[in-house]
Amino acid sequence: MTRHRSWAEPWKIKVVEPIEMTTRSERERHIRDAGFNTFLVRSEEVYIDLLTDSGTSAMSDRQWAGMMMGDEAYAGSRNYYHLEEAVREIYGYQELIPTHQGRGAEHLLSKLLIKPGDHVPGNMYFTTTRLHQELAGGTFHDVIIDEAHNPASEHPFKGDIDLAKLDALVREVGAERVPYVCVAVTVNLAGGQPVSMANLVKVSEYCHARGIKVMLDATRAVENAWFIQQREPGMHGRTVAQILRMLCDLTDGATMSGKKDSLVNIGGWLGLRDPKLAAKAQNLVVVYEGLHTYGGLAGRDLEAMAIGIRESIQESYIRSRIGQVYYLGERLQHAGVPIVKPIGGHAVFLDAAAMLPHVPRDQFPAQALAAALYVESGVRAMERGAVSAGRDPATGENRYPKLELVRLTIPRRVYTQAHMDVVTESVIALFEDRDRVHGLRFTYEPEYLRFFQARFEPVGAARVLDTPDGADLSEEPHFELGGS
Ligand SMILES: *Cc1c(COP(=O)(O)O)cnc(C)c1O
User: By three-state DSSP, how is residue 339 classified?
Assistant: First the structure.
């Protein structure tokens, strides 16, 4: 008989960073100063920071030791060769072009492969990916399966590409106008949802038969590999590392943000197979990032990423990583809070449209909910809805995606289960007070990637979250000892 054992972190804590809780009246001031945009709140004013899992990971003692071994040569740093070795071995791409982060690689790839008038299909958009495709003159097309747009669907692989949608597009515009298909694993904006191996096999066969390349957005491919191991028939006996390699082997290249899976604070790369294309990318990286053996990074950053890649594929690590996301998601689900199902790999997504039916879409319910959560508890989350989706470049109209979400993103190896308990309690408190949340309107809207820097004000109210009756705003938070 096997006895039940909870997942637990395969590490212990060696260094800590103090964090502080603020009062509600302080947070009211901070969110107003930040234009009701959590991106503009200072980190010191945040209690538990679930804005993003990008670059917020805790590095290991080995990675920090690697930082001391940085070879800060302009050209040919040994750390570059360590990274090249790790990418070749773990991801299988022979050609490596380092970049300062993921969007640096997206910029190079878009410039190299997209000609004005081209069409680039993908499994739901990602903000920076789509913008680089558009700036290169391409048009993005969402070819993800319909289930991805339904937060309640329990489909195990909501990131899958709908082959019929892809085929309809290719027939309409012609294969020669489709330089590549961008496959994101997992799909961030669908709620961290995975793509199945079977689907990528079909996409790869379809595309390669027509001279269309398949490019992976490998940012969270390790987490995707874990879902395949857990959910896909016939895959249970394989290691995450083996599955990751199988995914990559089906593609012609990848853009990577090391700030996610690879457990570093900065870094990314473009991985390719075709040496001719790689030579062009190596030429272009000199213009935008730096010499092709550092790509905008210090030698120490390259070393930390090389080590982080190897740590990221350890089974005990990935189990605890996703175990923590599940812990939070299951507690919220149990309390009746509407979240995207199934729970994703890097975050729990609150369904803001379901939670705030009284706030119309053009008053940005997810933006309002993220601001209100910060006021309620000092927990910082991120909007993933109409503000992130931006405006249609052709018509200038707001895009209203089906999903209007708030993302509670879990940094890797940073917070404990007790922090997840506080987050749960905070979200439940806000859920109970949801009628007190007011919509927002723009007071400043930047042209590109507006969600990062936009400012707002509440519509028809003084605050984004009305005060509960009789509450003392200057009250210090009350923490209880013992279990609840
Ligand atoms: C973060 C992210 C990127 C961009 O990477 P950066 O390192 O932030 O530039 C691209 N694709 C996905 C899916 C991401 O989550």
Answer: strand
Element (H, E) at 97: strand 95-99
Note the pLDDT tens digit of each residue in 100-110: 999 999 999 99
Atom 8 of ligand 1, nearest CA residue: 102
Ranges of each domain in the chain: 24-53+315-458, 61-312
Per-residue confidence (pLDDT) for residue 144, from 0 to 100: 98
CATH number 3.30.230.10 given to 24-53+315-458: no
The pLDDT value recorded for residue 393 is 87
Q: Is residue 157 annotated as a catalytic residue, yes or no?
A: no
Judge whether 273 counts as a catalytic residue: no
Q: Which atom of ligand 1 is nearest to the CA of 258?
A: 7
What number is the average pLDDT over the span 258-279?
Answer: 98
384 is an active site residue? yes
Angle at 291 between CA 86 and CA 134, to 5 degrees: 85
First-last CA distance in the chain: 31
CA atoms within 13 A on the CB side of 55: 9
Omega of the bond prior to 186 within 30 degrees of 0, cis?
Answer: yes
pLDDT at site 153: 95
Tell me: domain 61-312, CATH 3.40.50.1000, correct?
Answer: no
